[in-house]
Amino acid sequence: QGCDDGNPCTANDTLPCPGGACAGTPVADGTACDDGDPQTSGTTCRGGVCAADCALPDPAGIVAAADHTVSVFYPDQSYPDATTLDVEQSDTTGDVEAISYLKFQVQLQAGEAITSAAVHLYCDLLASPQAAEGNGGDIHRVGDNSWTEGSITWNNMPTWDSQVIFSQGPIVRGTWYAFDVSSAVTAAGTYSFAIV
Questions:
Q1: Are 186 and 113 in contact (CB under 8 A)?
Q2: Are strands 49-51 and 44-46 parallel, antiparallel or unpaired?
Q3: Which member of 73, 79, 95, 136 lies 3.0 to 4.6 Å from 23 by CB, making a disulfide possible if both were Cys?
Q4: CB atoms inside a 10 Å sphere around CB 140
Q5: Which pLDDT score, from 0 to 100, does residue 136 have?
Q6: What is the CB neighbour count within 10 angstroms for residue 174?
Q7: DSSP letter, residue 193
């Protein structure tokens, strides 16, 4: 059954079953779109999301070795070329619908030590233009580092530790947020996280 999911970066929207959520297939990255925000321009579709470019807050920081969003609506699909991440919960049931995974490879030179660590994320687009605010999610440590952007899906995603490392409260669009992971990142090595 046809429907409109309200996302300018998806096409062929369908309602899979009665009571289900309307969802579409992401259009090609780079497709021009309107994010509904009069303060942004030059927005394009990236990984099924209408987003604007932004600059890193710390160019000298460690860039993620891998990052990916898994979605309950696409349980067997992965989008290795996606350029945005998503964290989503149902407005009605509170069930988790999208989880973001990030992997970092931390290297230290002789004599160096870690005094603090944070994952910096930019809030570029919320679930819908009318969703002006939301919560940024809880970040958890993931013990299994074997996942890759090209293989991770909702159905095979690695489990995360139950302990919340950092919880990001309300977020607003156009703002950088720092998820403090100092308690987890204490030495050189590979670290994976899930934001739920």
A1: no
A2: antiparallel
A3: 73
A4: 21
A5: 87
A6: 13
A7: E
Q: How far is 102 from 141, CA to CA, in rounded Å?
A: 10
Angle 54-59-64 from CA coordinates, rounded to 5°:
80
What is d(CA 35, CA 170) in angstroms, rounded to the nearest whole number? 20
Mean pLDDT split into 10-residue runs, the chain, 196 residues: 80 73 82 72 74 58 89 88 79 84 93 90 63 76 96 96 94 83 95 96
**Contact 36/21 with Cβ under 8 angstroms?**
no
DSSP string of 66-84, one letter each residue = EEEEEETTSTT---TT---
Kindly report the CA angle at 28 between 130 and 7, in degrees rounded to 5? 15
Is the pTM value of this prediction over 0.85?
no
Q: Which residues sit opposite 179 in a β-bridge? A: 119
Report yes or no: 122 and 83 within 8 Å, Cβ to Cβ. Answer: no
Q: How many CB atoms lie within 10 A of CB 68?
A: 25
